[in-house]
Amino acid sequence: MNLFLQLFALGCATGGIYAISAMGVVAVFRSSGVINFAHGAVAMAGGYVMYSVADTLGLSHLIAVPAGILVSAVLGWLVYAVVIRPLADTSTLTRVIATLGVFVVLQQGVVLTYGSALKIPHPYLPTGAVRAGPVSVGADQLILFVFSAALTAVLWAVFKHTRFGLATSAVAESPRSLAALAWRVGRLRGLNWALGGALAGVAGIALAPSLQLQPNSFALLIIPTLASAMLGGLRSFPLTLLGGITLGVLQAVCAHYLDLPGVGDAVPFLVIIAVLMLMGRTLPLRSHLNERLPRVGSGKVHPVRLLVAVAVVAVAAQTLLGVQLLDGLTVTLVTSIILLSQVVVTGYAGQLSLAQVPIAGVGAIIAGRLLAATGLPFPLAIVAGGLAAIPVALAVGLPALRARGVSLAIATLGFGVAINAVILRNSDLNGGAGGLQVGFQSVFGIDVDSIVYPARYAILCGLVFVLLALVVANVRRGRVGRRMLAVRTNERAAAALGVDVASTKLYAFVLAGVVAGIGGVLGAFRNPTLTFTSYDPLTSVNGLIQSVIGGIGYVPGALLGGVGQNGGLATAVANTWLFDIAQYLVLILGIGLIVQVIVQPNGIADVIAHPKRKKGPRSAAPRARLPRPFARRRAAAVDAQIAAARRTDHHPSGGRLEARGVTVRFGSVVAVDDLSFEIRPGEVVAVIGPNGAGKTTLMDALSGFVPATGTVLLDGSPLSGLPAFRRTRAGLTRSFQSLELLEDMTVLDNLRCASDPTDAASYLIDLVRPDRGRITVATVAAIDTFTLAEHLHRFPTELAYGTRHLVAIARAVAAAPKVLMLDEPAAGLSEVERTEVGDLIRHLADDWGIAVLLVEHDVELVRRVSDRAIALDFGRQIAAGTPDEVLADPRVVEAYLGHSTSVMRPTKEVS
Ligand SMILES: Nc1ncnc2c1ncn2[C@@H]1O[C@H](COP(=O)(O)OP(=O)(O)OP(=O)(O)O)[C@@H](O)[C@H]1O
């Protein structure tokens, strides 16, 4: 018990400091909605400045400590003013990546200024023991704990009771309202960033004497910091203190009682995962903002160009390049393979993984141990490394099922730290200080020893890169690629099209894991003795940065990113002909990244592929692709498929939807209250009601987007309990009020996404033979009915508003639904377009027998199109019958207009 109390006290002291650092993150997040990944590096800078002033210059800590805090505060403000402010209108991903750039710049700046060696600052607080009953704690720890509690109280009071604090809480919600009240939003945010920096500095200075200063480990203070901040819900200072203490105590107890190396480092990660799993959702809410991510390439392979490039590299490697350049080439190719994994998981699938390099390390360590233990041939060891990465990649991907964006980045960074601590730095696995002896390798009898035959090893890496690049490009062009793009663009829309969002994400992580694992093996086996120090989480951050600079959505982007790897071609060329830039390379990359995300977020590969395109991810691809012979051939093939489908006399047919006692609660709000109704094949049933009546929530409940009680039956089969994509596949399809078109895809690919077969075989077949997708009878029916033939190769952003509406309905029809639910399909359309949409809805019901549930505010349209109507108010059914009966019902009139004497007129817009 005494020991536990002792550990508890120790954990409280460390946790208090985590909490101080985390409160800096909270202050920044409350004001700007941004998670600053450079926060740990800012803390580290504070610690180093304190060390310089006190230990190097020999000045008093009374000067050194404030100096460290001041520098951190200034750094915090600078990050805001120089990096975050110019990126105010960009995606979360862009801002995360930018702060990662700052992280790298600060970390490398410290390395260049102070070196990587450990620095041990002199303690500045009394270190004697203080006894309280059976527990003895250091006086410094006690002081720091009391200080953290006092600081929490001060911050809580400031943010709760001062104008500054109240304005900060308001600024993240509504900067415009605050500006209207004469607040200078930029200055307020800048102050919070400075406060965040200062708090990071306090934490860095507090931890410096016990943690000791070392750039690589100290900057990772960001992980426990973020874990504490997440436990505090990124809002509450007292809860953040509690979170920090919980974390500190858990770390101390686990490290003591669990005999597992690195377990202390893994605890914050486990806490992060637990929070994400508890708080996250499998599909985002309606309010989730879908942001455009960096553009993706087409995955088109030019065989002639590829063969020429391979031949040139092979000949140059064998005949022209010296050892240094060959080594640079090998490092570039190995890195490029690992970055290919980033293209799959982040570029295509939109999942921000910061664990790809540690995953590569797992592949390397397992292949190394297998080969050392069994004498496995090298090619099989490469494959084994790829396969060995699968379970770890799956585990890294699991949080993605409930977390997205910044949260996922935090989880994967934490996972990387845990993998590094528990597996890669584990001397039971990594061969200890001497490394893992594997000797030299051969492939099919050819010696590929990278020291004697560096050219051969480089060529081997080149061939593996080409092979994997082809696989990744195939995936992009196939059915699976469409699913990934749909998921990255809009998870709700993807699920509504029948895409299994969870499986698609996990597949992306697994495929990326295999690719990274193979890269990891090739990287480690460059030497006869394997070491795993270069598979650390910081290298993973650098890897992401290189991917973004190269073009994270492009296969060639991985190669371009690999060129910039430390020790890669850029370094080798510069070292051979210029000067030793290795030490500055990471710094240059970090600065390059920050400049690039501001100027050209899509990467160098995008500029090369489309030199004339505008820079922002929002600028659509121009139609000018069609004249190219390839595009013309493809268009002709599409036309032929459409013609063939037209010759068959099939079209979608309807089914019967039954809802029994469907109820949805959001806390105390009952959004849908015990609704029961039926829609028969060929029937159009309108659901009307004032704003907030529960119409969209009803649709969400029927289609599986929100949890509901009650029963939903399709043709007598229960749908309740099934996830959204399964309901779509069963025949219940929906459109969205906000259309939710997949903006990264052409109209045709939007339709294909809805009509693609859903079998799992494509996950494997697409790797070698991508399925461009057949055009189904339902798709052609949708194209013809909604006259979309001329728009098929356009992107949604290029279409007129009315046409976008038609595409949204056509896409739902392309899924061959039995029951179609349309959420305000006529909103914002002109009179003529509304009439057209009404006719089309009737056509779907009358000619194809589809059962239609129509949510609509346009009373005229409801009256003209629907067979029956149901009126809702506060989630409850207040009337049902023919449209005329329902619209004339006094309860409906009252619900809409607030008093029963008014007469409901056939106006166009009631709301
Ligand atoms: N995720 C949510 N959490 C909490 N409350 C919610 C959520 N989604 C909807 N609501 C509430 O449920 C009620 C019904 O909202 P809903 O959007 O379904 O109404 P609606 O009839 O579709 O309105 P509109 O015509 O404006 O689209 C409202 O009170 C709304 O605030």
UniProtKB/TrEMBL annotation:
Sequence ranges assigned to domain ABC transporter in this UniProt record: 657-899
Membrane topology: Multi-pass membrane protein
Spans through the membrane: 6-29, 34-51, 63-84, 96-117, 137-159, 191-211, 266-283, 304-323, 354-372, 378-398, 405-424, 457-475, 506-525, 545-564, 576-599
Subcellular location per the Swiss-Prot or TrEMBL entry: Cell membrane
Pfam families: ABC_tran (PF00005), BCA_ABC_TP_C (PF12399), BPD_transp_2 (PF02653)
Primary location class: membrane
InterPro entries: AAA+_ATPase, ABC_AA/LPS_Transport, ABC_transp_permease, ABC_transporter-like_ATP-bd, BCA_ABC_TP_C, LivM-like, P-loop_NTPase
Keyword line: ATP-binding, Cell membrane, Membrane, Nucleotide-binding, Transmembrane, Transmembrane helix, Transport
Domain of life: Bacteria
Entry-linked PANTHER family: ABC TRANSPORTER ATP-BINDING PROTEIN, CONSERVED COMPONENT OF ABC TRANSPORTER FOR NATURAL AMINO ACIDS-RELATED
Name this protein carries in UniProt: Branched-chain amino acid ABC transporter permease/ATP-binding protein
Organism in which the protein naturally occurs: Actinoallomurus spadix
